[in-house]
Amino acid sequence: MQSSSSKHLPTVLGILAVLFWSTTVAVARDIVERLGPLTASAALYLAGGALSCLPLLIRPERIGRILRLPRAYLFGCGGLVVLYVLCFFLALGLAADRAQAVEVGLINYLWPALTLMLAMPILGDRARIGLVPGVLIALAGIGLVAGAQNEVLSWPGFAADLRANAAPYLLALAAAFAWALYSNLSRRWAADAGGGAMNLFMLASGLVLLLARCFFHEHPHWSPDIAAKMALYVIFPVGLAYPFWDIAMRRGRMVFVASFSYLLPLFSTVISSLYLRVPLTRALWLGCGLVVAGAVICKFSVVERRIDDG
Fold first, then answer.
1. Beta pairing partners, 126
2. What is the mean pLDDT of residues 25-47?
3. What are the residues facing 127 on neighbouring strands?
4. Closest-CA residue to 262 (of 291, 303, 237, 288)
5. Are the C-beta atoms of residues 93 and 216 closer than 8 Å to each other?
6. Domain for residue 134, yes or no?
7. 1 lies in a domain?
8. Closest by CA position to 299, among listed 251, 263, 270
């Protein structure tokens, strides 16, 4: 019989993943500005993937366990993770300026809502009437959080940017769908598996980003300060958060964790503001409140189907 602590551990790991990811913007901004988006992301995911693969060298029997995972999970979910990382970093790299980068990030934050919505057709979860207003409230909060950091951000300006340079927005939308699909399909295809393959997915993402780097000219400027920030990024947002999320999606309370992920822009904005010394405005606090309200509504608007329900 499973102990109470082990039963709730996957859900706790999912919450930690969200908290670790909330440091991404604050740390990655410095790294990307010095190294370039593809150089930075390739180095980060190669290092993070290699670090997470170290246990495979210590216990080689785990390799056989990974190879016995369903092929649909290995290739389908692995491909979705690589697609997410590639699309997201290309979207950031192709953004014309910081205002457009904020808009790209806003679109990427659609993945929590998409995860809950796709859980109905993929996993058979049931939705109550509160799901739609919950999603809309959370998205409105995300818009306010993003807009509070950039006074020129507006819907007319967003439409103008879309007409002038649509590629970053389409890539960010593709990334959001890829991660939402991965979160649901990993549970459908590997819920009963004893472990996942996120370490290999991260390493594969780094290799693909390294290949993509060959087609872009970037001029990185390395320094001990950047190396220290990269080490922190590799350990927490990459090395720990992704495997933790994988465990939570396969074995934890998926709807609760996905709803909690609505708080990601809140945590990310507060940490970024403190780290980058950006004032927290009234509009930003209002946006954070809407994000929290939307997360709570969504949490109670989706009835999760248990893994053992068949």
1. 303
2. 85
3. 302
4. 291
5. yes
6. yes
7. no
8. 263
Q: What is the mean pLDDT of the chain?
A: 80
Answer yes or no: is 66 within a domain. Answer: yes
Q: How many domains does the chain have?
A: 1
Spatial separation of the C-alpha atoms in residues 276 and 282, rounded to whole Å: 18
Compute the radius of gyration of the chain from its Cα atoms.
Answer: 19
Residue 72 lies in a domain: yes
CB 251 within 8 A of CB 10: yes
Cα separation values, 36 from 40, 86, 89, 143, Å? 6, 14, 10, 26
Give the pLDDT confidence of 133-191 residue by residue, as tens digits.
888 887 787 666 655 545 545 556 556 656 777 888 889 889 989 999 998 898 888 76
Could you tell me the residue range of the domain that residue 213 belongs to? 9-309
The one-letter amino acid code at 142 reads I
pLDDT digits over 64-89, tens only?
Answer: 777 778 888 889 999 999 999 888 88
